[in-house]
Amino acid sequence: MMSRYDIAIIGTGPGGLEAAITAKLRNKDIILFGTKELSPKITKAVEIRNYLGLPSISGDGLAKAYTDHLEAMDIKINEARISAVYAMGDYFALQASGEMYEAKTIIISTGVVAGRPFPGEDENLGSGVSYCATCDAALYKGKEAVVIGYSKSKEEDALFLAENADKVTYVALYKDVSELADNIEVITGNVPKEIIREGDKMTLVTNKDRFTADGIFILRDVLSAEKLVPGLLMEDGHIAVGRDMSTNIEGVFACGDVTGKPYQYIKAAGEGNVAALSAISYLTVKR
Q1: Where in the numbering of this chain does the FAD/NAD(P)-binding domain appear (predicted)?
Q2: Domains in the chain, CATH or no CATH each
């Protein structure tokens, strides 16, 4: 039988990490999704001067303090990329790369997604456009696919997809691409501009070329919240929350940059604490 966690936390910025710490201190069974290499927004900060108790600390120093705190509390980071969250009545199902997870409550702390969707992206989502190459790989046996990879970590997804598809065109939006499989054509120096449906085929238009295949996978580092959790109420590109960090979906809470400005570490951490306490209260009432 699949384990059902008390709280699933998505995101390893200050908000998500603080939520995990608070929930663990309250003896909740948690699972934390994100990356072990903390966000560049933290590590690349030259100096942080308004974090209570740490009058002058570098981003690297703060990241190390976060990591040390997690290790001291034996909190592990699960690097599975969550591509969708579905409300299932008394619990939530979280879809990841080839796996499903269950949790009674959700805390979203995914940060802010830079940029707008490509023209044609939203219109074709689920019918030619996907955000999870490993989830849909089995559908591409004998077919061709285009993958837009935003970082090196997406190469693994492209390789998995290539085990099923006849051909994968991998449009890398970063430098130093690894040597991939024989049936993966690597494209660099192209900037995606638009996605077009042409009959039963999908075409990615870039600043230099056009790439046509049976489907297009967009593998961003962060998935926008409204695509991650269908039905979330958004305001000006952020998740709308109350003072208790609750969203319009019962059992779903949010914290950090994803809830709006100011985009500051201490604000995000404070909201993470509130979100965890609110999720715990929700669980208590639901018993």
Answers
A1: 5-272
A2: 4-113+223-286 (3.50.50.60), 122-219 (3.50.50.60)
